[in-house]
Amino acid sequence: MNEDVKNNLVEKVSKNKEQLVDLCSRLVQIPSESPESDTRQMVKEIADFLEQIDDVEISFHTLEEPITNIVARIKGKNPGKRLILNGHLDTYPAGNESLWTHHPFSGHEENGRMYGRGVSDMKGGIASYLVTFMIMAEMRDSWSGELVITLAGDEETMGVKGTKYLLDTVPHASGDAMISGDAGAAKVLRFGEKGLMWIELNAIGKASHGAHVHKGRNAIDRLAEGIDRLNKELVSLKVNAPKEVTQAIKESSEISERYSGEGETEVLQQVTVNFGTIEGGVSPNLIPAKASAQGDIRVPVGVSMSEVEQKLKEITESVEGLSYHIFRQYEPNRSDINHEIFVFTADNVEYITGEKPVNTMRVGASDARHYRISKNIPSVNCGLNPYNLGGPDEYIEIEELTNLAKIHTLTAFDYLSE
């Protein structure tokens, strides 16, 4: 792309800054918390905007009410590649409203920031997509192929009724490459994610009075032993990651930890275990006959889920009365960072921000994994810095929102004009 075209596209985004900010604020003002993930009003607001664009195809898709998903498509001057802009409409719960300085769905601006639940994760990213889509429609005589927006509910609860459903049922929800504007940082592009395994540990003992420990078998003790061993032994599993993955993680460490916290580099390269729920027993003076706990295991590239399950099986079989059940899992996944979508995105981040971005893995989950695992579609995460993500007073910097829209627009044009 020559300098004049770049400048023209950037100027178009700048001229639409007020509309971009207003769009973001209006989306934040519509609650779409998960669970329930009622995205119907969000979809209506987005469709009202998209319907103003000439020759746009819009469709609505629902596997289970009230989760409504929306897909929009525009075409360039000639057949060509298809680029997907994928995002999610649902958010974390707002939580205790009294802890917020302003109402969690105010979408208000203050000191160059916008506040509200979901503003970073990821209604700001969606607003960026919509402005990108509008500008690309205006420029459709200058590029070929198709630009498609897929916006789904259910991401916070694993995306089965959202993005996965769209990929399974809507042919043009798949493409040649995908950009995810999910929460992150434009200067830290994510090319893959750790795998996930959710487990339930169950322990069986023998009930008795708490004073008569010689007559009973404590299920909580057995459960605790299993939890302790899983924490120690799974974390110690050897990781055989490809050289390019390890190199990318290490080279990005300084910058990625600036945004994502000290220790991310280590966490990306090891299995992690977190038990989030536990229950058992009925009274302090009774030996519990049963106990259970649910845990979240994250698995890096270089360790297979079968290896994790084998270790899980070894541990539970060695503790009397202990068993396990896996109720959700998927493998680690990644895209090739040499693919052109990464090259274009990185070039445009540097052009807009003046800083060269880094590529690394993502510790958490996003709908990008569905594109990688289900369709093997190269997928890059380039989103907004999340401030107070998941807590009170979630916010974004409006300048970063404007920059993100410039990056997305330039990258879409680059990719589809090649």
From TrEMBL:
It comes from Jeotgalicoccus coquinae. One of its GO terms (molecular function) is succinyl-diaminopimelate desuccinylase activity. Gene3D superfamilies: 3.30.70.360, Zn peptidases (3.40.630.10). InterPro entries: Bact_exopeptidase_dim_dom, Peptidase_M20, Peptidase_M20_dimer, Peptidase_M20A. Its EC number is 3.5.1.18. Residues 192-318 form the Peptidase M20 dimerisation domain. Keywords: Hydrolase, Metal-binding. The keyword Methyltransferase does not apply. This is Succinyl-diaminopimelate desuccinylase. Transmembrane segments: none annotated. Pfam families: M20_dimer, Peptidase_M20. It comes from the Bacteria. The keyword Metal-binding applies.
